[in-house]
Amino acid sequence: MGLMGLRSRKVVPQRTPGELDAMAVAGALVASALAAVRQAAGPGVSTLTLDEVAESVIRDGGGVPSFLGYHGYPASICSSVNDRVVHGIPSSRETLAPGDLVSIDCGAIVDGWHGDSAITFGIGTLIPVDEALSQATKEAMEAGAAAMVPGNRLTDVSHAIETATRAAEKRYGRTFGIVDGYGGHGIGRQMHMDPFLPNEGAPGRGPHLAVGSVLAIEPMLTLGTTKTLVLDDEWTVITADGSRAAHWEHTVAATENGPRILTQGS
């Protein structure tokens, strides 16, 4: 029997405390893989070598790479260098050079639960504008994570990311493009789940965050355009104007004690 006037409000999918702990195991493995990749990266090192490093860490830790075979994707990481935004395919022909800006996205499955995280770093010393781009993107991610509080709504996280991006523009004295059409997502026993999380927008909209709600928060910023193109490999996303891009991501849960980052290193 229906009761007039009672409606269940939409909530970002929730996990139990035990499930969050299980996701944190997968997340810690992703953090270890990313740390190993960063350690291995240097001039003359191929992005395929970085992929092999990440896969070894994941498998040695009892996990399975989330990305490998996902809709036919051929690798365990996405390696996006310079003007590549996301989904760059590692290659033995792509070797890193001093000054390159490298974004690595990585996912792992442990006991059926997914972790998903991304970092951006330089090969050697970055020029100041590239360093500012990476830092601004990281700050935007951290602001989004800080908004993962029960009672907030989905676009409160979006708005926090956008607000932090605009604050970074003032601090660094330049504009950043928030990449159109790409954003964060729900995550759990699947890597990509509803809802889609935009990286900008007005607050107070979309499903509510409740205790145990989990989102992958991943701003992507550029030094120029917000527009992108996809290469003929049907995966690699590049900036439409050739400007450099950065990508940072954490998997984050809303808890009674505030945001819990599930892809934190030990």
UniProtKB/TrEMBL annotation:
CDD domains: MetAP1 (cd01086). The keyword Protease applies. It catalyses: Release of N-terminal amino acids, preferentially methionine, from peptides and arylamides. Binds 2 divalent metal cations per subunit. Has a high-affinity and a low affinity metal-binding site. The true nature of the physiological cofactor is under debate. The enzyme is active with cobalt, zinc, manganese or divalent iron ions. Most likely, methionine aminopeptidases function as mononuclear Fe(2+)-metalloproteases under physiological conditions, and the catalytically relevant metal-binding site has been assigned to the histidine-containing high-affinity site. Its cofactor is Co(2+); Zn(2+); Mn(2+); Fe(2+). GO terms for biological process: proteolysis. A divalent metal cation 2 binds at D116, H185, E218, E249. GO terms for cellular component: cytosol. One of its GO terms (molecular function) is metal ion binding. A divalent metal cation 1 binds at D105, D116, E249. Substrate binds at H87, H192. Its EC number is 3.4.11.18. Removes the N-terminal methionine from nascent proteins. The N-terminal methionine is often cleaved when the second residue in the primary sequence is small and uncharged (Met-Ala-, Cys, Gly, Pro, Ser, Thr, or Val). Requires deformylation of the N(alpha)-formylated initiator methionine before it can be hydrolyzed. Monomer. Belongs to the peptidase M24A family. Methionine aminopeptidase type 1 subfamily. PANTHER family: METHIONINE AMINOPEPTIDASE. This is Methionine aminopeptidase. The lineage of its organism: Bacteria, Bacillati, Actinomycetota, Actinomycetes, Mycobacteriales.
